[in-house]
Amino acid sequence: MNNENHFIICEKLGKSYRKGTTTVTPLEELDLQVERGEFLALMGPSGSGKTTLLNCLAGIDRPSSGKLFIGGEDIAGMSRGELTTWRGKHCGYIFQLYHLVPILTAFENIELPLLLDKGLSKSGRRFRVEAALDLVDLADRATHFPSELSGGQEQRVAIARAIVTDPQLLVADEPTGDLDSSAAGQILDLLQRLSREHGKTIVMVTHDPRAADAADRCLHLEKGQLLEAHQKEKATA
Ligand SMILES: Nc1ncnc2c1ncn2[C@@H]1O[C@H](COP(=O)(O)OP(=O)(O)OP(=O)(O)O)[C@@H](O)[C@H]1O
């Protein structure tokens, strides 16, 4: 597992769930390699295992079989506690419906993941939150509550919250699914920038062909199998 370019390596990755007396296996012997800094889109019919794969990559779910290495670390071999620590440092999760805390301001929402780092001072947190707000172009909305923001602005706050700990990996589950075309375009531009200019590796689930087109590569997941849909020449910053 020493290929520097392959930030994510899945080998025969499997995930099964018990449902009463039956077993559901959304991922079976899945092989996938993602380069460091690559922006990858995942498409596929409902129930094909896209979110299951995303949750394995994010360390939320533990694979049932196979190997999973991210940034050289053996994710499949970690305990739940080790996964939680790993996720806090190395992975940011972006949801379709933002999942912001309604009673906190944009600044306070973005600051939340930093509160877990007891070694970080208040001024250190402020510096990082302000940098994240600048990056998503919302410095003038720091004191606004989610109800005072548009959907696109809420998603940009959620992206700032995902990147404030400076993780290498971002996973996004239909990040433009609830947005109009113009706001969706801004989110896709931002994700492209995070990959091309900041070197983030991004894995995004989407049903939207335009969103998939913004990525460097698109894969289709069908019954646990990955099929390559398109690959673009990677643009440099
Ligand atoms: N925690 C769980 N317990 C039991 N079954 C689960 C669990 N999570 C997912 N599944 C099952 O695994 C299969 C894949 O689900 P998953 O959410 O990964 O699909 P998806 O491709 O993301 O679908 P959608 O596009 O509808 O979100 C489904 O049959 C689902 O019911």
Automatic annotation (TrEMBL):
CDD domains: ABC_MJ0796_LolCDE_FtsE
Organism from which the protein derives: Oceanipulchritudo coccoides
Origin superkingdom: Bacteria
Pfam families: ABC_tran
SMART domains, alphabetized: AAA
Lineage: Bacteria, Pseudomonadati, Verrucomicrobiota, Opitutia, Puniceicoccales
Signal sequence annotation: none
Protein name: ABC transporter ATP-binding protein
Gene Ontology cellular-component annotations: membrane protein complex; plasma membrane
InterPro entries the UniProt entry points to: AAA+_ATPase, ABC_transporter-like_ATP-bd, ABC_transpr_LolD-like, MacB-like_ATP-bd, P-loop_NTPase
Occurrences of domain ABC transporter (ranges): 8-237
Similarity section: Belongs to the ABC transporter superfamily. Macrolide exporter (TC 3.A.1.122) family.
GO molecular function: ATP binding; ATP hydrolysis activity; transmembrane transporter activity
Keywords per UniProt: ATP-binding, Nucleotide-binding, Transport
